[in-house]
């Protein structure tokens, strides 16, 4: 893999720069370290930093920009009449880049040689067979224009990569050379290096911002793309979710309301389980339990929070679902036949509630502990019992924090994926019956993006609109929760 | 306490003794007891769920670690071999020879049960192919007794582990009641037995029709490469970001923006990170689909807030006197941080990092979106570099794929996979706890 080699070469240049910069500085001071402005290692680091940072920055930018540039150039040369009914330029480009990858694969396996692969007059029928022989994933039949575009794509990306390697190495050498040239006794190497390190630190801290920007951009662009293909009003107010499977044709109904209802219903069931249990557990642990009980019970409860959600999903699908069917289902213990199958709102809600218990309990525990002892003592002094103190003094004082904790738990429940994918079912419906299968926003994101539908179809793009809904919903809940917690937190300090 | 409440509760001008509890006090004390019982009940419910979960995992997962095999001692003469090779249905000839050998072995152990080739095929699968392959590869073994170990079919496996039972059993083309009698007889004769299933730990995912051959090894390797990416990206970036925010950042709008972003990212649902990975890394940057390096990048972004929050806490726990002493001796601020504060905070940082990694290891949803589903885990990567870019799965995604398959025999594998996943998580958490206990300093 040439990329790894390129990085290693840059690092080697940097190492050489370090050694040379350091020795040049020492030489300029006549070997007397006291004559130098900074410690000798700073002169070396200066050269090394100047070699590595610009070169790797260029490498990353180039790697991002090159495919974009090539795509736009090639896509401009494809004639419009190639784009068949129900297809798009994006789909055609995907085919071109797949074919180019297939050519690379075939050449590396020796099925075809380089000359044939780049021959514009090559027979495309024979080429299709060869590519399939090499195990490349290509469409059933490559057409002549697509093959030629793929060949251009290949040659452009090969040239691009070659130019990139040379440019990166030149930049690294120049940087190292500049750093070495700077090394003299008067040069304030430490200040320069520390300034550089500081810039790197800021860059690392900015990644959090970049991530948010990336999330928002990837959601917004694809959502806009989706609303171009599908009316926004039908997405937001549609009462039916029935995506057609791609290839079979027909129009899809992609209304978000049934999914939102399923999400909210399952979250409500989860909170009905988690809030009382979590809250009472927190009250007991912080107000009643001795230190020994606390030392055992608190970590054990928190184990529930450390278990991956896939485990809960499997637990819902294979243990809780069948158990609930044997109670509420046909021929069950209660003799009612409310529940048809294991996958139901109550299954997913119950298991999600179990997952959220430690979440509610540890947050509430912290908040209850933060209520000043003086308030309890005052209540006891007036003759209240412990439970009366908790109910009438401690809980009201901690209420904003507890509400915040519950809102955070609700946002976790809304964003939870694996439990609902495995435990809640796949049918989208608007119903009040908790024993029926329903589905959620997250479950549909998974199913729409892991299916066979192409990224450019509304059936796949709807996942981004769903993701946007989810992002806005959870972000709103989090901000609201933090607002409540912050606003009332310092009331007693 | 109780005296106090009795005092206050005692009505005025009462002639009753203080030692006698009146109705109102009794009611209040009862409410107190009830409230306390609710608390105990809540903890009990929480712990009960934990126990149920653990029991369910182990009860359902342990069968994945055993497999049922048939031990058959079997000799094939040169003539038989040539005869079989000359026939049109070669594997059938081998099967016949095998059945003969099995029959004699059964007769020797005093079992007399009629059986035909079909039932052998239902129990052990198509044995002819396996035997032929072996003898074609080792022709020098011809004429010598060789003991074969043949994996039983998944339904026989289920019968041996108790998943398939006799009551309510219905004959199907996969297994009949008569076959179960034969299995019992074979077990008595010591021919069929269960053994530890190494293939489950080292193997790769199998096709949908072969639950017995499915293993988690390849996806463990996928998870390993992902964790390498996460470790080598999120630790330096997270530590650098925390150092900036904790030690150098001026109080201004940009710093506030970063802080708000970090706390929000910590609460963004993991599936949204999957969408980010799909749109940015695969659609926009054209990185390879299903590659552990992309999974690693996505999980890095997801883990960063966790690592930053814990790193900042441990940097904050280093007392200012350390910084002041370093500065007083002439160190620059950068030197005081990198030479003194950071080493002292390192145990806490590593603990936080390991916990962040454990979280990332168990994450499933984003991996499904970038294509790291179970069935791409078909083998080990050829080289170290290929490990990052070749399509592979990860443990939780593999478990999901098994759980979503129709054949119930895969459920055992899913539970077994969970045991392995939890063992990794447990190890990581124990390391984190040991690090914290051993090295964390209280100032």
UniProtKB/TrEMBL annotation, chain A:
Q: Report whether Transport shows up as a keyword of the record.
A: yes
Q: What is one GO biological process annotated to this record?
A: phosphate ion transport
One Gene Ontology term, aspect cellular component: plasma membrane
Membrane topology of the entry: Multi-pass membrane protein
Residue runs in coiled coils: none
Function of the molecule: Part of the binding-protein-dependent transport system for phosphate; probably responsible for the translocation of the substrate across the membrane.
Respond yes or no to whether keyword NADP is given for this record. no
State its location(s). Answer: Cell inner membrane; Cell membrane
Question: Which Pfam families does its entry note?
Answer: BPD_transp_1, DUF3708
Ranges annotated as spanning the membrane: 51-70, 161-180, 200-220, 264-285, 305-328, 340-360, 393-414, 460-485
Sorted keywords for this record are: Cell inner membrane, Cell membrane, Membrane, Phosphate transport, Transmembrane, Transmembrane helix, Transport
Where does the UniProt entry say this protein principally localizes?
membrane
Supply the Gene3D superfamilies for this chain: MetI-like (1.10.3720.10)
This chain's source organism reads Poseidonocella sedimentorum
Source domain of life is: Bacteria
UniProt protein name: Phosphate transport system permease protein
Q: Which GO terms describe its molecular function?
A: phosphate transmembrane transporter activity
Family named by the database record: Belongs to the binding-protein-dependent transport system permease family. CysTW subfamily.
According to the entry, every stretch annotated as the ABC transmembrane type-1 domain falls at: 260-481
Q: Which NCBIfam families match?
A: phosphate_pstC (TIGR02138)
TrEMBL record, chain B:
Name the record gives this protein: Phosphate transport system permease protein PstA
Organism, by scientific name, is Poseidonocella sedimentorum
Keyword Transport listed: yes
**For the ABC transmembrane type-1 domain, which residue ranges apply?**
220-432
Transmembrane segments annotated in the record for this chain: 37-58, 224-245, 265-285, 291-309, 341-362, 414-435
How does the UniProt record describe the way this protein sits in the membrane? Multi-pass membrane protein
Where found, per UniProt? Cell inner membrane; Cell membrane
Give the family, as the similarity comment puts it.
Belongs to the binding-protein-dependent transport system permease family. CysTW subfamily.
